[in-house]
Design a protein that fits this description.
Helices cover 60% and strands 6% of the residues. It is built from 28 helices and eight strands. Helix 3 runs antiparallel to helix 16, helix 24 packs across helix 25 and helix 27 crosses helix 28.
Length: 725
């Protein structure tokens, strides 16, 4: 056999206490255990109150004290045991864990303090570099949180050098504006293109010289050399005729002279650009703060690249001009140059931006230096954290702290457990003095529900030389201790005692599972009703239970129990029968007629009603028709007896009931006899049942009840759950 609890392990005889539920049972064992005088009249009446709970409480107190141990024994270090010994050991373990944690924490704090405030190496005493003369360990810990953040990036070594240089800076004078450099490279290129590609008139030109630029240049130079010697060539010694001079003068005319002169002028202009371009946009880094030097270096490099490219383009123009000069009479192809003058202006624009920023920077130098000191300090803190392995050390300290906290919690839990144990002992000891309330509660039930004012329970305190003060119960009748209680009185007191105990400190508020086994034993019908009332008012109405079981042998009591709130709700209540079969008992579902009807009379009426309204073609209704004879006979016997209590003859009752309708009375009587008996009518069992006849008789009965007493008929319908149409 086993019991199943929802959400709990199944319970067998091997693990009776594994369910963790509060269970309160009223049965014969309860009475024997708590009220021994009722079972054994030879026992003293005094132990009744003690047996009620005090004996149990004394045993529980001793168990609690044994579990607790003694603080004095711990101090004397003799016979130490219990929770006090556990507390002593836990205290020692906690103290050791605390000392280990404190030692590691002290070492770290010492390192932090040295770094923050040690003179002369602490951050506090290097304010010229780190900027805070009031630096302390709390500020260091704040900085550590910053550098440990995943988003933090410390200064690089180069950035540290820059910040240190920044700290050396003093406010500088404003940097004067530089005029925007202008290089008309496109204009020069246009002029050069015009000269290089320009055509000169070929009329009156010497054909041979037009075709040979070198020869043309040679003749031109020779012409200049022979101006003072016009008659004889110095090269060949031959004479130079006037006609030849005229040809040469026509070839090297004024136009050619002017064209060559224009080439020389433009070439000279280009040479001047090449000489002066290096002087454009002169940048002096010393005029700027060190923070701008890297940008200035990039700008100077960019400017120089632009200068070099510009010089290269100018040189290319110059080369083209020289080529044309060398072959003055023949146009040349001119390739457009790359104009870098705009990039040069861009360099000037960047310079101007840096110049203005530098001039503004003078106003914010103090803040920049303050920010630099902070960044240098954070770099220093970051190096410190890395050096001492701060993360590893703090993780170790946290582990030690967690260990200490865990041990401390165990110690506190033991202290709380000891406190609760002491309180529980005090409550148990106090409970022995509070038993009078239990007696008063029992008396209230006896008086209010049963009217037994002459029978009461009284709490008596005893003074004992060797033991502490104790309380016990005595049953008092007419002011004196009562003896020779009747079985009914014993039952009433026992059940009232049980209900009172549902309010004790161990049960109150715990919503127990309650089992009440036949509480109306030896009670008359009036007291049966009062027991029902007491259950309804003190248990069901208060709803201070998880589940309740009530068993009884008494059908009247069962009838009352069906009146309890929710008793007929199929989702809340179940009904069972315990039947004995040889040496075993079985738990079965209660028959429907007992479960659904207040009496068998209602059940029998329901069967007749079902037969009257049954479908004769439905094979599942066979048992309904098969039992019709017995059910009808029993119903009419009960109904007609109360209808005609003075009648003697059964047939006379039927005749009177059907109002002289002989057909109805005869048919009913025949069905009752033939269908409910086989003695002398054995052949009846071999013939089919006449179902239409049964339906006719059932309708006769229902119609006649309705005719004679419609109010009773409607009440019977309601009792079987049928509402009148």
């Amino acid at each position: 056999m086993k019991l199943a609890f929802q959400g709990e392990p199944d319970i067998t005889q091997n693990n009776l206490k594994a369910h963790g539920k509060k269970i309160r049972v009223f049965n014969e064992d309860f009475v024997k255990d708590k009220l021994r005088f009722i079972v054994n009249p030879d026992e003293s009446i005094t132990p009744f109150a003690i047996m009620g709970d005090n004996v149990d409480i004394e045993e529980e107190i001793q168990i609690l004290k044994d579990e607790l141990g003694s603080a004095e024994d711990i101090e004397k270090e003799i016979n130490a045991s219990g929770y006090f010994l556990e507390l002593k050991n836990a205290t020692a373990t906690t103290n050791n864990a605390y000392q280990t944690y404190q030692e590691e924490d002290r070492k770290l704090n010492q390192q932090l303090s040295y770094k923050a405030t040690n003179n002369p190496n602490g951050i506090k005493y290097k304010s010229e570099k780190f900027g805070d003369q009031n630096y302390n360990i709390n500020k260091l810990q704040n900085d550590i949180r910053i550098v440990l953040d995943t988003s933090f990036q410390p200064l690089t070594d180069d950035e540290v050098t820059q910040k240190l240089n920044l700290l050396k800076e003093e406010a500088k004078a404003d940097i004067p504006e530089i005029n925007k450099p202008t290089i008309d490279l496109s204009g020069i290129s246009a002029k050069a293109k015009e000269l290089v590609t320009k055509s000169i008139s070929s009329s009156d030109k010497i054909e041979q010289l037009l075709k040979d630029a070198i020869l043309n240049r040679w003749v031109k130079e020779g012409r200049q050399l022979h101006k003072d010697k016009p008659n004889q060539c110095s090269f060949c010694g031959n004479s130079i005729s006037p006609e030849r001079w005229n040809e040469l003068d026509s070839h090297f005319d004024e136009e050619s002279e002017k064209f060559e002169k224009d080439i020389d002028i433009l070439t000279s202009e280009i040479d001047n650009y090449i000489r002066n371009i290096d002087t454009l946009l002169q940048i002096n880094k010393s005029d700027f703060y060190s923070k701008f030097h890297s940008d200035l270096d990039a700008l100077i490099l960019q400017k120089q690249q632009m200068i070099d490219k510009t010089k290269s383009e100018l040189q290319r123009i110059k080369t083209k001009l020289q080529e044309r000069k060398d072959d003055l009479l023949n146009p040349k192809v001119y390739e457009d140059i790359i104009d870098n003058s705009q990039q040069f202006e861009n360099c000037w624009t960047k310079f101007e931006a840096l110049r203005k920023e530098a001039n503004e920077y003078s106003k914010s130098l103090e803040k920049e230096q303050s920010d630099a000191k902070k960044l240098l300090r954070l770099r220093e803190v970051n190096d410190f954290v890395t050096t001492i392995q701060y993360t590893t050390v703090t993780a170790k300290i946290q582990t030690l702290k967690a260990s200490y906290d865990a041990e401390s919690q165990k110690k506190q839990a033991l202290e709380e457990k000891i406190k609760q144990q002491i309180k529980l002992i005090e409550d148990k000891e106090r409970l022995m003095k509070d038993e009078e309330k239990g007696a008063l509660q029992v008396n209230e039930y006896l008086n209010n529900y049963f009217g037994h004012e002459f029978l009461t329970l009284q709490a008596i305190e005893n003074e004992d030389t060797f033991e502490s003060k104790k309380t016990r119960f005595e049953i008092i009748r007419n002011g004196e201790k009562a003896y020779h209680l009747s079985e009914g009185e014993c039952s009433l007191i026992a059940f009232c005692y049980f209900l009172a105990k549902l309010q004790d400190v161990e049960t109150k508020g715990s919503k127990p599972i309650i089992w009440i086994d036949d509480p109306i034993s030896s009670l008359d019908s009036n007291h049966v009703f009062f027991v029902y009332s007491l259950i309804n008012a003190e248990i069901i109405a208060k709803d201070e239970f998880e589940q309740i079981f009530i068993s009884t042998h008494n059908l009247d009591f069962l009838k009352y129990l069906k009146r309890l709130p929710g008793a007929l709700n199929k989702k809340q209540c179940c009904y069972f029968l315990i039947s004995r079969e040889k040496e075993h008992s079985k738990l079965k579902l209660m028959p429907q007629y007992l479960k659904d009807y207040v009496t068998e009379f209602n059940y029998l009426f329901h069967q007749i009603y079902l037969c009257a309204n049954a479908n004769i073609d439905d094979d599942t209704q066979h048992s309904l028709f098969y039992n019709f004879g017995n059910n009808t006979r029993k119903f009419l016997e009960a109904f007609l007896f109360y209808k005609y209590p003075n009648a003697v003859d059964h047939d006379d009752k039927l005749t009177r009931f059907f109002g002289g309708n002989n057909q109805a009375s005869t048919m009913t009587d025949r069905l009752n006899n033939e269908l409910s008996h086989l003695e002398g009518l054995f052949e009846r069992s071999m013939t089919p049942i006449d179902i239409p006849e049964m339906k006719k008789v059932a309708n006769f009965i229902l119609e006649k009840i309705k005719e004679k007493d419609n109010e009773q008929y409607e009440a019977l319908l309601l009792s079987i759950g049928v509402e009148k149409c």
